């Protein structure tokens, strides 16, 4: 256990090892370590952000779904209303058309009745004249009694 | 203690605690010491080949492993080696951040080197005490003490390195005048007490590396002596004491490396602070 040059030798060796460590050993390991730390921190950050985004997206999707459902039901309602309206309109039209037809027919019938009445009237006047001729056995001057006959016919 | 049956326990212990010394002997010139006396006679101009060799080997092992991990370091998923290395680096980084107040890119790598290097050198102690001495005797080498931290030269050498850094940063941060003022005017800020302060502060300064080196050396040396004493037991009884002691030393080895590193960082932190 003598103190000798080994002391100096060891100091020199120590200095060299420390220098080498400072120069070549520490920087790559340390930088890799810190970079990884940063990467992990970033990753965790991104993960939390992504989960937040996901939540947001889910909420949005639910919102959209709700809106579209509402819209669909609205459209359905409208369509139902419209169809009811169309049916109502059609019905109305049909009734109007029917009434018009009925009115037309009635007018025609009235006309027909009028014509039949007129014809009948004419024929009745002839019949009446003929009947009267036969009753009187002589001819009646048609011209003289025309007025009377017309009056008669109008009374029928 | 394979060949030890015919040697005395004293010789056995002394043999195991003797470093392989190469130096300038007054009579034999530059040569390997063949006995403890010869090694002592060489004085300062001698070098412990085993201490230097094993410590440099451990240092290179540290550099090699950590450099390899550094080269293949990715920011992605780390491999096994990288994971282990990063664990150590992170541990040192946290230690430095907790104890070192200030900014200096040298401190953390310095602490890493100290910690891993001392840990590796200390760990050599777990190798049974007879393996390497016996092996080297077979190879014709008289002595081989493989744990560098049981050699005060090694521990004090590292402490000396730390001491130089303490002085360097003290002067760099506070300036030569500031450092001198700190040495002469604390703890008693009065001109009449300057000599007293100076003595106090310089002793305090010198005790730092001395304590650092001797603490590590003392712990490791004492442990080593116990291992050697245990090895003197009959072969069937050795494990009874050796195993618990070795397990206990797993703790001591780590703890001493940690203490050396932490104290170095604390001293360097103090060197950066203004009083």
UniProtKB/TrEMBL annotation, chain A:
Subcellular location: Cell membrane; Endomembrane system
CDD domains: ATP-synt_Fo_b
Main location: membrane
InterPro entries the UniProt entry points to: ATP_synth_B-like_membr_sf, ATP_synth_b/b'su_bac/chlpt, ATP_synth_F0_bsu_bac, ATP_synthase_B_chain
UniProt record similarity statement: Belongs to the ATPase B chain family.
Quaternary structure annotation from Swiss-Prot or TrEMBL: F-type ATPases have 2 components, F(1) - the catalytic core - and F(0) - the membrane proton channel. F(1) has five subunits: alpha(3), beta(3), gamma(1), delta(1), epsilon(1). F(0) has four main subunits: a(1), b(2) and c(10-14). The alpha and beta chains form an alternating ring which encloses part of the gamma chain. F(1) is attached to F(0) by a central stalk formed by the gamma and epsilon chains, while a peripheral stalk is formed by the delta and b chains.
Protein's name in the database: ATP synthase subunit b
Lineage: Bacteria, Pseudomonadati, Pseudomonadota, Gammaproteobacteria, Oceanospirillales
UniProtKB/TrEMBL annotation, chain B:
Biological role stated in the UniProt entry: Key component of the proton channel; it plays a direct role in the translocation of protons across the membrane.
Locations listed in the record: Cell membrane; Membrane
Topological type in the membrane: Multi-pass membrane protein
UniProt-listed Pfam families: ATP-synt_A
NCBIfam families for the chain: ATP_synt_6_or_A, PRK05815.1-1
Entry's transmembrane regions: 44-66, 106-132, 153-171, 191-207, 219-239, 245-270
Family, similarity comment: Belongs to the ATPase A chain family.
Keywords: ATP synthesis, Cell membrane, CF(0), Hydrogen ion transport, Ion transport, Membrane, Transmembrane, Transmembrane helix, Transport
GO terms under biological process: proton motive force-driven plasma membrane ATP synthesis
Any one Gene Ontology cellular component term annotated for this protein: plasma membrane
Coiled coil (UniProt feature): none
Superkingdom assignment: Bacteria
Stored Gene3D superfamilies: ATP synthase, F0 complex, subunit A
Organism from which the protein derives: Vreelandella azerica
An annotated Gene Ontology molecular function: proton-transporting ATP synthase activity, rotational mechanism
Matches recorded under InterPro entries: ATP_syn_F0_a_bact/chloroplast (IPR045082), ATP_synth_F0_asu (IPR000568), ATP_synth_F0_asu_AS (IPR023011), F0_ATP_A_sf (IPR035908)
Name of encoding gene: atpB
Protein's name in the database: ATP synthase subunit a
């Amino acid at each position: 256990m003598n103190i000798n040059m080994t002391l100096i030798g060891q100091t020199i060796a120590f200095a060299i090892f420390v220098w080498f460590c400072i120069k070549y050993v520490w920087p790559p390991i340390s930088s890799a370590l810190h970079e990884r730390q940063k990467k992990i921190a970033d990753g965790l950050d991104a993960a939390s952000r992504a989960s937040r985004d996901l939540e947001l997206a889910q909420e949005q999707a639910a919102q959209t779904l709700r809106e579209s459902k509402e819209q669909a039901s609205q459209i359905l309602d409208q369509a139902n209303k419209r169809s009811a309206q169309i049916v109502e309109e059609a019905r109305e039209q049909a009734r109007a058309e029917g009434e018009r037809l009925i009115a037309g027919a009635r007018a025609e019938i009235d006309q027909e009745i009028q014509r039949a009445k007129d014809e009948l009237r004419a024929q009745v006047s002839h019949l009446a004249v003929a009947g009267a001729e036969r009753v009187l056995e002589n001819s009646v001057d048609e011209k003289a009694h025309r007025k009377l006959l017309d009056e008669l016919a109008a009374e029928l | 203690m394979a060949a030890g049956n015919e040697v005395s326990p004293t010789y056995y212990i002394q043999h195991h605690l003797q470093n392989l010394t190469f130096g300038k002997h007054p009579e034999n010139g530059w040569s390997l010491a063949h006995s403890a006396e010869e090694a002592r006679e060489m004085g300062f101009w001698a070098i412990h080949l085993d201490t230097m060799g094993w410590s440099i080997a451990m240092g290179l092992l540290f550099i090699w492993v950590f450099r390899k991990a550094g080269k293949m370091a990715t920011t992605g998923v780390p491999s096994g080696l990288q994971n282990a290395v990063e664990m150590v680096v992170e541990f040192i980084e946290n230690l430095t951040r907790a104890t070192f107040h200030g900014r200096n890119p040298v401190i953390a790598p310095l602490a890493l080197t100290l910690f891993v290097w001392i840990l590796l050198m200390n760990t050599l102690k777990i190798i049974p005490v007879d393996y390497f001495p016996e092996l080297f005797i077979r190879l014709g080498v008289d002595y081989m003490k493989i744990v560098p931290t049981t050699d005060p030269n090694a521990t004090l050498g590292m402490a000396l390195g730390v001491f130089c850094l303490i002085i360097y940063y003290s002067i760099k941060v506070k300036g030569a005048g500031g450092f001198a003022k700190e040495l002469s005017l604390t703890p008693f800020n009065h001109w009449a007490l300057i000599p007293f302060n100076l003595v106090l502060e310089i002793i305090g300064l010198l005790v730092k590396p001395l304590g650092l080196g001797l603490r590590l050396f003392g712990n490791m040396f004492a442990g080593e002596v116990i291992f050697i004493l245990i090895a003197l037991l009959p072969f069937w009884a050795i494990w009874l004491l050796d195993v618990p002691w070795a397990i206990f030393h797993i703790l001591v080895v780590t703890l001493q490396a940690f203490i050396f590193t932490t104290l170095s960082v604390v001293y360097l932190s103090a060197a950066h602070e203004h009083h």
